[in-house]
Design goal:
By secondary structure, the protein is α/β, with parallel strands linked by helices. It has helices spanning about 40-50, 65-70, 70-80, 95-105, 160-165, 170-180, 210-215, 235-240, 245-255, 270-280, and strands at about 5-10, 25-30, 30-35, 60, 90, 115, 125-130, 135-140, 145-150, 155-160, 180-185, 185, 190-195, 200-205, 220-225, 260, 285-290, 295. The two termini are about 20 Å apart.
Length: about 300
């Protein structure tokens, strides 16, 4: 059975707190696991969340600040210690390749797994295309080079049984029509409709910029940083971050179905205020203020 869900491993910004670990997010996409921004402590959070090294097929790093990448050393060594039976591919900003190399070989260990390094460069990139999805990347606006990532499922087709019945198509003929596109003068377009593929975006440390809006556009789920509350808008801009209200406005304008706010500054004690400010910006869809170790299912496909 296919599973599409976000497993939240950590939600703090800059420093961990008693209740929030450094960043870490695993997207389960059918039989594949994509690990985003493994900060310090990710290995232990994986254990607590029931995530195994074998679950990781791909690692996506947005940028090389420590709260988004210091866990790489431990995760990579754990992948090798557990002898994960498949290759693991890592994406990260090309400008930070020396940081990735240092973290990959931070200490001595025996390499037993193929780790494929595929860095990202340019304003827009397509780091990977699989049968299940396309992985896109967009440059963001932060003091160090940073990228956001987007998963786009190919559009499919939904067969409409009533239209099949009208045309007398049943049994094995349905499969023939789907394979060949036409049967006895009836085309597939006449008895089906487009089933829009799901879209997921992961947007971390950034100011508002074109990359943010492009990544968020039409997403079923948007995971986005909201480091600051709106009263600290200038501080957010100075440090290359978003506020909760800005994140809510982005999701509103992009038609996002489920907004996940995360990456919270330790200066705030009331997590519900992030939701209030995102709602005040006009976002009316489903909203989750992320907490460590929660699981957030992707919304069901739009009928």
């Amino acid at each position: 059975m296919s599973v599409r869900e976000l497993v939240v491993l950590g939600t703090a910004s800059q420093v961990p707190t008693r209740h929030r670990n450094h960043n870490g997010y695993l997207l389960r996409w059918d039989g594949e696991g994509i690990l985003f921004d493994p900060g310090e402590g990710t290995q232990r959070q994986m254990l607590r969340a029931g995530v195994a090294a074998h679950d990781i097929n791909r690692i996506c790093v947005t940028h090389f600040h420590g709260d988004h990448s210091l866990g790489l050393a431990g995760v990579i060594q754990r992948i090798n210690l557990d002898r994960v039976p498949h290759p693991v591919t890592a994406h990260y900003p090309l400008s930070g390749e020396h940081f990735f190399e240092r973290l990959r070989y931070a200490t001595a260990y025996r390499e037993s797994v193929q780790l494929v390094q595929q860095p990202v460069a340019g304003d827009r990139a397509v780091p990977a295309t699989t049968a299940s999805y396309t992985l896109e990347a967009r440059r963001l606006s932060h003091p160090v080079e940073s990228y956001g990532y987007r998963i786009v499922e190919p559009d499919g087709r939904r067969i409409l049984p009533a239209l099949l019945a009208e045309r007398g198509i049943r049994g094995p003929d349905v499969g023939r029509l789907m394979r060949e596109g036409e049967l006895n003068g009836v085309t597939l377009d006449e008895v089906s409709e487009i089933r829009r593929g799901q879209r997921f975006a992961f947007v971390m440390d950034t100011r508002l910029c074109a990359g943010v809006t492009e990544l968020a556009d039409g997403c079923d789920m948007l995971v986005i940083e909201s480091t600051f509350l709106d009263g600290d808008l200038q501080l957010a801009d100075d440090h290359g971050h978003l506020t909760a209200g800005q994140a809510g406005a982005v999701a509103r304008d992009a038609g996002v179905r489920h907004l996940v706010l995360t990456h919270f500054s330790q200066r705030y004690s009331d997590p519900e205020e992030f939701e209030r400010q995102a709602r005040a910006a006009g976002f009316e869809g489903e909203l989750t203020v992320a907490a460590d170790l929660v699981r957030v299912p992707l919304p069901k496909r739009t009928p």
